[in-house]
Amino acid sequence: MVKGPTPGHGPLTGVRVVELAGIGPGPFAAMLLADLGADVVRVDRPGGAGLGIDPAHDLTNRNKRSVVLDLKSDEGPARVLDLVERADILVEGYRPGVAERLGVGPEAALARNPRLVYGRMTGWGQDGPLADRAGHDIAYIALTGTLSMIGRPDEPPTVPANLVGDYAGGSLYLVVGVLAALQHARAYGEGQVVDAAIVDGAAHLATMIHGMLAAGSWQDRRGANLLDGGCPFYGAYATSDGGHMAVGPLEGRFYAEFTRLLGIADAFPDRWDLARWGDLRAAVTERFLTRTRAEWTEVFAGSDACVAPVLSLTEAPHHPHLAARSTFVEHDGRPQPAPAPRFSATPVSVRTGPALPGADTEAVAADWDVPALRPTPRD
């Protein structure tokens, strides 16, 4: 294994990753690899991405290093392949065929490094009728049926930010794929291409739901099922001050504690009487509107009623449990989620802030032994 420049910073220390800059799920996947200790070199394009935030605040580029290469120039693709020769994994998120046209596709990369794991991140996948079409998270989860499950039955589907498609169905599946392929490459000396499509991952996430649908225990419409807000004891309720409480006491003993603390004990002894779910929801709604979010949080504190306050992004880091676990950390004055998961022998951390485009060219050229990365001196 090649020794990386930051030893001891996670289980992937020594793994080298080339990331061809993009937006969305590709950068997040590469960030996760970097959080786990991999030496991720991001190849940024001159002028930056067409869509994105100020690089100084783009937390998905933390724990990485950056070089700037123009892949449309004569030298750009050759320098990428120089990096590929020394890499374990490459991550790219172009439309199918773009990397090939740029000269850095799987054939060229694997010819240079037969042990390379070539990770491809797209929405539609590398083939199929829509493979060449543009798209974003919302279209991918719409087509897979995932979006249809989210929201109230009498309203359009609720958009779950870009968490379900881009990151859950995309980034996480790409990371699982490239790490599995890396294991194979190290065992057998054979690299390969990993085709991670958001439509595949988003569909796969709903495997349990499809099983319930086949068994007749899930209705193919939102707001009518146990886990989609249709159940009165699995959802969110408004409080008197405009806040919300999340409720989920599915098991009998938890439900009994919930109704006792809420003040409706024994009013609805048969919680599975679907004919009375409307009445139960109305009773729960009415009770929660009698107190503030803080007051209800205190009522349910220390219980097994499976009730929690709905916190905002800025409130969450200050919750006592999350603070005790350091679920959020601050680096260079920027609060952010800490790397996850956690490891007993190879702990992970936020080592560096967002990589600024081109800031690490000299260091990467030296560490990876690619002197051609250094700019040619001008006369």
**End-to-end distance:** 40 Å
Range of strand content: 5-15%
Count of alpha/pi helices: 13
Question: What's the overall geometry?
Answer: elongated
Q: Tell me about the biggest sheet?
A: 6 strands, parallel
In percent, how helical is the residue content? 25-40%
Number of strands: 11
What is the radius of gyration computed over CA atoms, rounded to a whole number of angstroms?
24 Å
The stretches of 5 or more residues where confidence is low (pLDDT under 50) are 1-6
What letter string, H or E per element, gives the SSE order? EHEEHEHHEHHEHHEEHHHEHEEH
Strand line-up of the largest beta sheet: 3-2-1-4-5-6
Helix-strand makeup class = alpha/beta
Overall mean confidence score, pLDDT: 94
What secondary-structure arrangement, pairings included, does this model have?
Elements: E1 16-20, H1 25-35, E2 39-44, E3 64-68, H2 76-85, E4 89-92, H3 98-102, H4 106-112, E5 117-122, H5 137-143, H6 163-188, E6 192-197, H7 198-205, H8 207-215, E7 235-238, E8 244-247, H9 252-262, H10 277-288, H11 293-300, E9 307-309, H12 320-325, E10 328-331, E11 334-337, H13 361-367
Parallel strand pairs: 1-2, 1-4, 2-3, 4-5, 5-6
Antiparallel strand pairs: 7-8, 8-9, 10-11
Structure commentary:
This protein has helices at residues 25-35, 76-85, 98-102, 106-112, 137-143, 163-188, 198-205, 207-215, 252-262, 277-288, 293-300, 320-325, 361-367, and strands at 16-20, 39-44, 64-68, 89-92, 117-122, 192-197, 235-238, 244-247, 307-309, 328-331, 334-337. It is an alpha/beta fold. Strand 10 (328-331) and strand 11 form a beta hairpin. Helix 6 crosses helix 7 (198-205).
